[in-house]
Every structure is written in structure tokens, then in C-alpha cells.
Amino acid sequence: MRLPDRLARFNRYVTNPVQRLWAGSLPGFGIIEHTGRKSGRAYRTPVNVFRVPDGFAVLLTYGPDRDWVKNLVAAGGGALAHRGRTVPIAGPRVLPVAEAHEFLPPRPSALARRLHVDFVLHVTTPGK
Q1: Are the CB atoms for 40 and 74 separated by under 8 Å?
Q2: For residue range 43-93, what is the model confidence (pLDDT) as tens digits?
Q3: CA–CA gap between residue 43 and residue 119 (Å, rounded)
Q4: Is the distance from CB of 59 to CB of 111 less than 8 angstroms?
């Protein structure tokens, strides 16, 4: 189940600017830093992020067709501000949630089921 586009637009212009003030510092949150495919402009998108053995996972509650996801995949990576540090991320892959349950920790996995999330973005970090 995808959340409505109307909510995504609201978050983009109202909620995200506020979340960018703190999302890179708190557990469970992060800021994906990516470059626009067409504009070349730098963007910072706040997300809920979960550690997995070889990197991080993001539940795609709005589906995989979001610009920030497309930008990250097209560039082959970007950066993630998480818990006060910024780390490079690479190898972004959009996976069906059924495949992601194999590597997701128990709580995010249960959350994905409860929210009926269909896709997960998986990224790796250097040395993993």
C-alpha cells in the first residue's frame, strides 16, 4: 500500500524542511543526500532508515517512483547523514518487501507488514 501523493507533496514542502533540522542526528532517521538526474542540483531528503548487516534499508512508504529514489539509483549512490555522521552509500536497489524481510531487523520487518509496504530501498556502505 502506498501512502497518497497528496501526503507526499505536503511532506515535501511542509514536513521535510522541519525534519532536515534534526533527522540526521536521531536514531531511526536519516537524510539521504542525492543529486538530481536532470538538474544536477544537490538535494537532502529526510527518511526513516534502518541499519542492516551491509548498510541501510528504507521502507518506501510512497512507493519506488519518487524522484529521490530515482536520483539515487541513477547516480549509483550518494550519502546518508545518520546519527550525526555522514557516510557514503552505494549500490542502491529497490527490492520487493518479501526479499527484504531476509535482512531487515525484526521491528522494521514488522512495521513493513503492518503498513503494507511493498518495496524497500537497500543501500550499502563502504567496506561492507
Answers
A1: no
A2: 999 999 999 999 999 999 888 999 999 999 999 999 999 999 999 999 999
A3: 22
A4: yes
Helix, strand or coil, per DSSP, at residue 36: coil
Burial of 31 (0-12, 13-18, 19+ CB in 10 A): buried
- For residue 11, the 8-state DSSP code is I
**CA distance linking residue 61 with residue 59, whole number of Å:** 6
In CATH, what number does 5-124 get? 2.30.110.10
Q: What's the CA gap between 53 and 55, in Å, rounded?
A: 6
Count of CB atoms within 10 A of residue 65's CB? 12
Query: Parallel, antiparallel, or unpaired: how do β-strands 55-59 and 119-124 relate?
Result: antiparallel
Say what the pTM is. 0.84
Closest CA to 103 of 128, 75, 69, 76: 128
Single-letter residue type at 51: R
What the block records as the C-alpha cell of 91 is 549500490
Q: How far is CA 106 from the centre of its chain?
A: 18
Cell representation of residue 71: 536520483
